[in-house]
């Protein structure tokens, strides 16, 4: 006999369960991250470490660099506590092996950033700084365009004041 398709109530229940699990996860993360004093700048993300390229025991630089203690030395390899990771990229910057640590994160603007080596992190930083500078210049240009012109009479007065006595 073919399996009965799920009813609308089953689907609604599934959705509700998924939402409450997600809320629970966010709450747990908040409770863990808040005491570290590190701000969460990305709403979502993931991190992975390639245990075959990691030099592990002789290095552990990523563990030292992590501001939230999301990384630890486990049984012969670097372990990750995903709930503590804020996807900052400090571990990627400190890792001496390219593409060993991979981070993917989604910012408030909904854009996804992926990086796995120091060069990627620098490029992302430069792109963001360029955008900030561009936005600043654009908003200054708008202010200048909107600035009211000085009346001619007032300008004459200013010139008169500057004339030598
Ligand atoms: S991205 Fe790396 S350094 Fe940053 S919080 Fe996550 S594990 Fe720690
Ligand atoms: S910094 Fe890179 S190579 Fe060193 S332990 Fe961490 S993941 Fe491994």
The Rg value, from CA coordinates, equals: 27 Å
The CATH architecture category of the domain at 41-148 equals: 2-Layer Sandwich
Share of helical residues = 40-55%
Share in β-strands:
5-15%
CATH fold naming of the domain at 41-148: Alpha-Beta Plaits
What would you call the shape?
Answer: flat
Could you provide a short overview of the structure?
With 165 residues, the chain is an alpha+beta fold. It contains five helices and five strands; from the N terminus they run αβαββαββαα.
List keywords for this structure.
5 helices, Alpha-Beta Plaits, binds iron/sulfur cluster, 165 residues, two-stranded antiparallel sheet, alpha+beta
Structural description of this entry:
There is one protein chain. This protein is an alpha+beta fold. It has a domain at 41-148: Alpha-Beta Plaits, CATH 3.30.70. Helix content is 46%, strand content 13%. It contains 5 helices and 5 strands, in the order αβαββαββαα. The chain has helices at 8-33, 61-65, 90-94, 118-146, 152-162, and strands at residues 44-49, 71-73, 78-80, 101-106, 112-115. The strands form 2 sheets. It has a 3-stranded antiparallel β-sheet with strand order 1-4-5. The longest helix is centred in the last third of the chain and has 29 residues, at 118-146. The N and C termini lie far apart (108 Å). The mean pLDDT is 86. The structure holds iron/sulfur cluster (2 copies). Residues 49, 54-56, 59-62, 78, 94-97, 100-101 line the site of one iron/sulfur cluster.
């Amino acid at each position: 006999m073919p399996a009965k398709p799920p009813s609308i109530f089953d689907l609604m229940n599934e959705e509700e369960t998924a939402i409450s699990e997600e809320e629970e996860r966010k709450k747990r993360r908040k409770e863990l991250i808040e005491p570290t004093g590190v701000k969460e700048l990305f709403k979502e993300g993931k991190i992975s470490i390639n245990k075959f390229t990691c030099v592990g025991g002789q290095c552990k630089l990523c563990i030292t660099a992590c501001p939230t203690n999301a990384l630890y030395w486990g049984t012969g390899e670097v372990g990750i506590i995903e709930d503590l990771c804020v996807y900052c990229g400090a571990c990627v910057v400190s890792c001496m092996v390219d593409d060993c640590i991979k981070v993917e994160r989604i910012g408030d603007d909904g854009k996804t950033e992926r990086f796995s080596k120091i060069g990627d992190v620098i490029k992302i930083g430069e792109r963001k700084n360029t955008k900030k500078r561009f936005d600043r210049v654009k908003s200054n240009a708008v202010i200048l365009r909107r600035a009211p012109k000085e009346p001619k009479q007032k300008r004459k007065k200013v010139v008169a004041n500057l004339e030598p006595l």
